[in-house]
Write a structure and sequence with these properties.
about 250 residues; alpha/beta; Rossmann fold; 2 domains; six-stranded parallel β-sheet; 11 helices; about 15% strand; elongated
């Protein structure tokens, strides 16, 4: 289903920006397994605490950091989160220390990622005509970039912007404007595709981009937020996005 709009013409689009998780890639992870993996790694380095003690402290720090992200849109990395957790447990460890890096890598080991089938088809067919870039809200740049390589997606995008690396999260305009600067295109020549109304759609529209909201799973189109933000287009798969461009060529 496409949203009714007077701005349906996409013939002037030169570049397409994509969100990562929930748009191109499905991620599955159980929080308790990820935290247990961190504990195992830290215990190997002879740090002494119970898993329950670590979990409670880690979750308290994570809650504090989520509030920072929500109120300021500044990104907080997994390394900072873990270093603060250890500090509260009595260990003064720098967030760039090898121990922290190894423990963060351990956190992501239980994650399972898969490219959506419709994403493969759409990206393959559109990349010969349009320039691609990626903007992701994510707290560990090395994991995201290694995931792109592991999934075979690294060569599809001219630029990959990760909030942890940039310092700002979507919907903050700085990360979108940096994307436009790197791509060398105007906002009106760019379509941004994402699954999060506030971060992806509101953020992109706020800097003048056209937007396509991808709705996967249960129907969310009745949400009041849709009427408030008003995506230019609503699609239920990236194949529908491809059809939009095909019909206007």
């Amino acid at each position: 289903m496409m949203v009714d709009s007077q701005e349906k013409d996409v013939t002037n689009i030169k570049a397409i920006g994509f969100d990562f998780f929930g748009t191109l890639v499905e991620a599955k992870a159980e929080a308790h397994r990820c935290i247990s993996s961190i504990c195992q790694k830290l215990h190997q380095h002879e740090l002494s605490f119970s898993n329950d003690e670590f979990t409670q402290t880690y979750r308290a720090v994570a809650s504090d950091q989520r509030e920072v992200r929500r109120s300021t849109q500044k990104e907080v990395s997994n390394r900072i989160l873990l270093a603060e957790t250890l500090k509260r447990l009595g260990y003064d460890v720098e967030d760039n220390s090898p121990l922290i890096v190894e423990a963060v890598e351990a956190y992501f080991k239980p994650w399972r990622l898969a490219v959506y089938e419709d994403a493969w088809k759409a990206v393959e067919r559109l990349r010969s005509v349009y320039r691609f870039g990626l903007i992701s809200n994510f707290t560990d740049t090395p994991f995201l970039r290694s995931s792109l390589q592991r999934l075979g997606l690294e060569n599809y995008f001219e630029f990959v912007l990760v909030s942890e690396e940039v310092g700002w999260r979507k919907p903050h305009p700085r990360i979108f404007n940096r994307f436009l600067h790197l791509m060398g295109v105007e906002a009106k020549e760019t379509l941004f595709v994402g699954d999060d109304l506030r971060c992806d759609i509101f953020g992109a529209k706020n800097v003048g981009m056209k937007t396509a909201w991808i709705v996967r799973g249960p129907n969310r189109e009745a949400d009041e937020e849709v009427n408030a933000i008003q995506p230019d287009y609503i699609v239920h798969s990236l194949e529908e996005l491809e059809e939009l461009f095909t019909h206007t060529q």
